[in-house]
Amino acid sequence: MVSLSQIELLLPELRAFAQAIGDTRDDAEDLVQDAIERALRAANPPGKLAELRPWLFRVIRNLHYDELRKRRVRREYLADAIRQSDISAATTETERDVLLRQAFAKLSPERREILVLVDVLGLKYSETAEVLDLPAGTVMSRLSRARRALLALVNGDAPPDETSTTGKTTEDARSE
C-alpha cells in the first residue's frame, strides 16, 4: 500500500515532471492529483519508494497522453460536425447553436447522457464508465453511436438505430 509519507517525498519531483510535460500549471496540478488518486486507489501499487517513483511518473505521462488524445478527438469531432453540416458561413453562431441543440434534444436520453458526460463535461472514458456502471469499451462504442446519431440529425438525416433500454442496439438484439 502506498503511504502518504512516500507521496509527500515524491511530490516536488512529480510536480516538476508534470509541469515539464503539461501545458499550464493548472494542468500539471491536475495530472499530479490524478496520479496520486490512482496510487491511493490502486489494488497493487509498488510498495517501495524506488519502484513507486517511476510508476507514478509513468501514470502522469499516461494521463497526459490520454488528455492530449481526448482534446484531439474533441477538436476533430467539432471540426467534422461543423464541416459536414450544411450550415453556411453566413449562419451565425447562435443559429448553429440552436440547430445543434435541436438535434441534441431529438436524441434518446441514453445518447444525450453519454454525450454530456464525455463531450460536454469532459469526463474520461473510465470516469464515465464508473458513473454509468459500464465497461469502458461499452462507453466508447455508445459514445461513437451517439456522435454518429447527432451528426446525422444535424445533417438532416435519420439517426441510426436507437439503443434499447437494455443498452443494445436493435441490430445487437436481432443477432442474439
Question: Can you tell me about this structure?
Answer:
The chain has eight helices and no strands. Helix 1 runs antiparallel to helix 2 and helix 1 crosses helix 3 (49-84). 73% of the residues lie in helices and 0% in strands. The protein has 176 residues and is mainly alpha-helical. It has helices at residues 4-21, 25-41, 49-84, 93-105, 109-120, 125-132, 136-154, 170-175. The model is unreliable at 163-167 and 169-176 (pLDDT under 50).
Q: Name the overall outline.
A: elongated
How far the N terminus sits from the C terminus, by CA atoms, comes to 44 Å
| Pattern of helices and strands | HHHHHHHH
Strand residues, percent: under 5%
Structural class: mainly alpha
Poorly predicted tracts of residues = 163-167, 169-176
Give a short synopsis of this structure.
This protein is an all-alpha fold and 176 residues long. The chain has 8 helices and no strands. Residues 163-167 and 169-176 have low confidence and may be disordered.
Write the layout of secondary structure elements.
Elements lengths: L3 H18 L3 H17 L7 H36 L8 H13 L3 H12 L4 H8 L3 H19 L15 H6 L1
